[in-house]
Amino acid sequence: MFFKRTPSISTNELEIKLAERPSIIDVREPHEFSSGHISGAKNVPLRKVDKYLPKETTYVICQSGMRSKRATKILLANGYDVINVRGGMSAWTGAIRGGKG
Questions:
Q1: Taking the domain 8-91, which CATH number applies?
Q2: What was the pLDDT predicted at 38?
Q3: Residues ≥6 apart with Cβ < 8 Å to 54
Q4: In the sheet where 23-26 sits, what is the strand order?
Q5: How far are the Cα atoms of 72, 76, 85, 87 from residue 98, in angstroms, in the given order?
Q6: Nearest-CA neighbor of 97 among 19, 34, 44?
Q7: Using an 8 Å Cβ cutoff, are 78 and 20 in contact?
Q8: pLDDT tens, 69-101?
Q9: How many other β-carbons are positioned within 10 Å of the β-carbon of residue 13?
Q10: pTM reported for the whole predicted model
Q11: Which residues, in sequence order, are CB contacts of 64 under 8 Å at separation 6+?
Q12: Coil, strand, or helix at residue 31?
């Protein structure tokens, strides 16, 4: 089987899409999520992502992009339409809820 590239977008591209109210899951741990997250994002820690059933195209974010890439691969393997957010919250410059900001 050939390796498929993981579909991904930048944090800037995701910020532009926020007006469309996209489905976003944040795969960080709950304490990380509560310290600051994108408005409308749902917290689904990486360890639980295999039980998550996206109903629509879903953007996956974490702190740096590593866990979200793993989560994206898991969900893609299960047939879901998911897109990794490169750079994660470390690269996010938009508004956040909770925590500082």
A1: 3.40.250.10
A2: 97
A3: 23, 25, 75, 80, 81, 82
A4: 8-9, 82-85, 58-61, 23-26, 42-43
A5: 25, 29, 20, 20
A6: 34
A7: no
A8: 999 999 999 999 999 999 999 999 999 998 754
A9: 13
A10: 0.93
A11: 87, 88, 89, 90
A12: helix
